[in-house]
Amino acid sequence: MLVGGAEAKDDSSKAANAMMAQGVPTELKSSLPDYGPDFPVSPIPAINVASVPQRSPLRYPGGKTWLIPHVRAWLAPTQPRPRTLIEPFCGGGIISLTAVCESLAEQCFMADLDHDVAAFWHAALRHNSELCHLVSAFEPTRESVSALADQAPRGVLEHGFRTLVLNRTRRGGILAPGAALTKSGENNKGLASRWYPDTIIHRLRNIEAHAPQINFCEADGLNLLEVIAEAPGTVAFIDPPYTAGGKRAGKRLYSHNQIDHRRLFKILAQTQVDFLMTYDRSQEIAELIAEYGFHAVKVVMKNTHHAHISELVITRRPVFV
Ligand SMILES: C[S@@+](CC[C@H](N)C(=O)[O-])C[C@H]1O[C@@H](n2cnc3c(N)ncnc32)[C@H](O)[C@@H]1O
What we know:
Helices cover 39% and strands 13% of the residues. The chain has a seven-stranded mixed β-sheet, sandwiched between helices. The protein has one domain: Rossmann fold, CATH 3.40.50.150. The chain is of the alpha/beta class. The radius of gyration is 19 Å and the shape is globular. The chain has helices at 5-9, 11-19, 26-30, 68-75, 94-101, 115-126, 128-137, 142-150, 156-169, 197-209, 221-228, 250-253, 261-270, 283-292, and strands spanning 84-87, 107-112, 214-218, 234-238, 274-280, 295-302, 308-315. A hairpin with a 5-residue loop joins strand 6 and strand 7 (308-315). It has 14 helices and seven strands. The protein binds S-adenosylmethionine.
């Protein structure tokens, strides 16, 4: 289990503090911007993400560590224990890793369409020791990071390592084209401010220990969902990219940021798979929830600019209401 000081040092603890929502006063709730019909507030607050184990070596923009208590509350009572958790838009994969490490599911099946992200997962799962070795030998300087960014990787190990370095040295962990390098970084430590070799290696080793239970494929998440959602004992955690008519951050954060949201809802409605899905609150999504008869609660939290935002947690059955 990954806990303790090294974890607390991680970049996510900063995002954590920003996202901390220990219950929001009524006057603030009523001042939230109106993004479509309202939903009940989840009985489970968003947590300070420094208080749960950080298991992903990637610092993922839009990462869902704050959702872990919801995922535990959703999966822990499920009998028999789910055989497979599928995560068709996995990014840093924090929910899949948590499910496997906490025995909430026997195994996970993750997918992402991003070729760089895919290289990281292939390297972490198939070349773990070599990847750890590269991490421990690397000195992140402006020159070494630029050299790595400019050079075409010669195989999946080099490519996965490159993804990891760029993810941890670019501002906000953003890998999409146009992302800038971290400037002052945490505590003015510059580029190295989010490069914690020991912590990263610890997380990589943990992935290796659970590798037989972790599956990854570079694939379209919607296609994957269509193909395997009906397998017996399967549950799905779904965190799709969302750009809400170009207003939200998804466009800037991910190279692949457009999916057919109606198709996603339709696939879920046509299968019996038990799912937990998250979305920004918007009129479009509220209408799809109503149309397909799903249940939703909102989780109110502060974003990095200390504004209160709400994310929706959508389920087929009324898990949180
Ligand atoms: C919101 S992020 C997921 C973050 C993840 N839940 C975490 O905690 O790290 C969405 C992810 O979906 C991926 N993606 C976008 N379109 C996709 C598609 N059609 N199929 C699979 N993955 C896709 C993006 O590359 C991105 O990694």
